[in-house]
């Protein structure tokens, strides 16, 4: 089994292995098998298309957490110039599960804040699997306040299973850190664009997610609790995660239908990790469009509009 | 059933059953902490605080506001708001059925009751969570009602108080429920900037989405003795860190020690002390 592929992608993996095998054979012999390779590649494309047009909510959840999915720092490298990372909450520590700093988006100064997961084991641990402690949220707050002072738009990238459920995090006020960000973000006099690039997990995601425009990558998810968490509470079994994912409607597509998402950014065939460069390009274009849409609003109108937007979020008779 | 019951003729047994059911149900209640058996009318008179060990038991939202507010000038806010199941959510039960049984159990339409009223003549807006309604979970109705109550307090420039008791977000409303955190927090920030006081009273228990939004945003955060409050539940934390949690973890005394709340107030003193605090904050003469 190829670990770069998820369960439901195994047919694709098998075909690719076969193509690879043929290539090797082709190198050894004089027989021209290019035609066969091309035929298989076309078949592979069709198969991928077929699999990816009928993804279940649970399959999308798995792609959103794919170990090779691009993370915040990848997009910073690919879509922005001249990034200076800024560290620390000035009170306790620097939380590596949230990164932030100043960069340029085609020349314009912007403040970037995002969850950061690690790729290798050691790095995963250092980044705490993208689960911030209170220091992370307080660092984010400090940078957002700075962005407001220096009139820079705030671009946040959401990719977390949730805020860290640990003893130390509780002792240092995890709840307060999240709550305070929610309250403050509702009033910043600078545009905020939040983009879910992977997992949008609960309060830990929302704590950098109050915004003027919400964008979601095609195979990202956003929800009040992880499918496993929801399943173990409501179905009393984490094995029902697939049912929970369906019921919660956590995919970008479903959330756009429900009116939460302003822009759904399409991903390359097979997901962002298959072609990070082209993903970053579409993301960059979408961010620039969103910023342009908010450009005409003066800061008071922006804050009023954000408040009205928040007030509309409800499942009530309209 | 003992062997004696088995040999007693069935007629006598059914008589015994009848006699048993003629005793009013629930006349006695065991204190979950000290296990004393308490006479319910007496417990009610004591606002569900155990007279033996001072343990604060849960009380309903309506009773809570009934104890807190003056008897006159009460006016309920947004009483007609009803939940709507936009997602057609279904787990082992339909969300609609869960709502119906919670409504039957509590007599409330959802998990928050809000009222305009007075405390010793001081006008204010107060709301309270109904924990028996799906664990006091915050869905769209709770969020909307909270915001309407907050906006009324802002309009009338009177203090706003919330008694929280909640397991957190309502999963059956998925992202709608998550957004209530942002919505309620945004409304409170408007009060803060306008200088309208908000006092958050934590009652056992307050977790998740409610803890990480409105419950931690008081100008003053107060807790009843020993009430538990935190972001993640103790079970989740234990499973994550794989160690035993310290004694008293996430209880009011722990929160006070770690700087999350301003004070712990006994249920019997809440009305008087909060009244006195709010009078100072709004420059009113002492009652």
From TrEMBL, chain A:
<keyword id="KW-0963">Cytoplasm</keyword>
<keyword id="KW-0276">Fatty acid metabolism</keyword>
<feature type="domain" description="CoA carboxyltransferase C-terminal">
    <location>
        <begin position="32"/>
        <end position="293"/>
    </location>
</feature>
<comment type="function">
    <text>Component of the acetyl coenzyme A carboxylase (ACC) complex. First, biotin carboxylase catalyzes the carboxylation of biotin on its carrier protein (BCCP) and then the CO(2) group is transferred by the carboxyltransferase to acetyl-CoA to form malonyl-CoA.</text>
</comment>
<dbReference type="Pfam" id="PF03255">
    <property type="entry name" value="ACCA"/>
</dbReference>
<comment type="pathway">
    <text>Lipid metabolism; malonyl-CoA biosynthesis; malonyl-CoA from acetyl-CoA: step 1/1.</text>
</comment>
<comment type="subunit">
    <text>Acetyl-CoA carboxylase is a heterohexamer composed of biotin carboxyl carrier protein (AccB), biotin carboxylase (AccC) and two subunits each of ACCase subunit alpha (AccA) and ACCase subunit beta (AccD).</text>
</comment>
<dbReference type="GO" id="GO:0006633">
    <property type="term" value="P:fatty acid biosynthetic process"/>
</dbReference>
<keyword id="KW-0275">Fatty acid biosynthesis</keyword>
<protein>
    <recommendedName>
        <fullName>Acetyl-coenzyme A carboxylase carboxyl transferase subunit alpha</fullName>
        <ecNumber>2.1.3.15</ecNumber>
    </recommendedName>
</protein>
<keyword id="KW-0444">Lipid biosynthesis</keyword>
<dbReference type="GO" id="GO:0003989">
    <property type="term" value="F:acetyl-CoA carboxylase activity"/>
</dbReference>
<dbReference type="InterPro" id="IPR001095">
    <property type="entry name" value="Acetyl_CoA_COase_a_su"/>
</dbReference>
<keyword id="KW-0547">Nucleotide-binding</keyword>
<dbReference type="GO" id="GO:0009317">
    <property type="term" value="C:acetyl-CoA carboxylase complex"/>
</dbReference>
<keyword id="KW-0808">Transferase</keyword>
<dbReference type="GO" id="GO:0016743">
    <property type="term" value="F:carboxyl- or carbamoyltransferase activity"/>
</dbReference>
<dbReference type="GO" id="GO:2001295">
    <property type="term" value="P:malonyl-CoA biosynthetic process"/>
</dbReference>
<keyword id="KW-0067">ATP-binding</keyword>
<dbReference type="InterPro" id="IPR029045">
    <property type="entry name" value="ClpP/crotonase-like_dom_sf"/>
</dbReference>
<dbReference type="InterPro" id="IPR011763">
    <property type="entry name" value="COA_CT_C"/>
</dbReference>
<comment type="similarity">
    <text>Belongs to the AccA family.</text>
</comment>
<keyword id="KW-0443">Lipid metabolism</keyword>
<dbReference type="GO" id="GO:0005524">
    <property type="term" value="F:ATP binding"/>
</dbReference>
